[in-house]
Design a protein that fits this description.
The protein is an alpha/beta fold. The chain has helices at 8-16, 20-23, 34-38, 64-76, 82-94, 103-111, 119-128, 134-148, 158-171; strands at 3-6, 29-33, 47-48, 57-60, 97-99, 116-117. Helix 8 (134-148) packs antiparallel against helix 9.
């Protein structure tokens, strides 16, 4: 199973859109760090400390050794907050794909050879899996883009949501 790690802003944004619980229905293991989680609002019923539990966010608590490595990562790659470095560190350490809309995070992740996914990719995956209907996805995308996080990276257009919907429709 592919695992995804979400930064605190992604968690906040999808929670604001009321898409955090549906996001867990994707066939990916979802995780974040306790440090990133403490700065975002994940409803407690969606959190677990057991990495084997499905349909919940696995929240990893870093060891003291891990925290020192995170500090070194931040020193070598300035521009993020400590919470973001914890997520980036785990993504690099475990080979986990990172979901973020942050330009600086994507830049540093790219330098570290960490695969990144943007918000549009998540919405497309939710449509393709039948979790989110296109009639809900387009207004959520517009809300995300216009008011929830206008500063996030927006590489794709609503056309890609329609394409994901068509792939889902044709495969059914």
């Amino acid at each position: 199973m592919t695992k995804l790690i979400l930064d605190s802003v992604t968690v906040r944004d999808f929670n604001t859109l009321e898409l955090l619980a549906p996001l867990l229905d994707l066939s990916y293991g979802m995780q974040t760090t306790s440090t990133a989680c403490s700065s975002s609002e994940i409803p407690s019923d969606l959190v677990t400390c057991d990495s084997a539990v499905c349909n919940k966010f696995y929240v990893e608590t870093l060891t003291e050794d891990d925290r020192l490595k995170v500090l070194a990562l931040g020193y070598d790659n300035p521009g993020l907050v400590f919470e973001d470095y914890t997520v980036l560190y785990i993504a690099h350490r475990d080979g986990t794909e990172l979901v973020t809309g942050d330009k600086c995070m994507r830049r540093i992740a790219g330098q570290m050879h960490v695969v990144t996914r943007d918000y549009m990719w998540v919405l497309e995956e939710m449509i393709a899996a039948g979790i989110l209907d296109i009639t809900v996805a387009i207004p959520k995308y517009a809300e995300l883009h216009a008011t929830v996080n206008p500063g996030a990276i927006w590489y794709n257009s609503v056309t890609s949501l329609h394409n994901a919907y068509e792939r889902r429709r044709l495969s059914a």
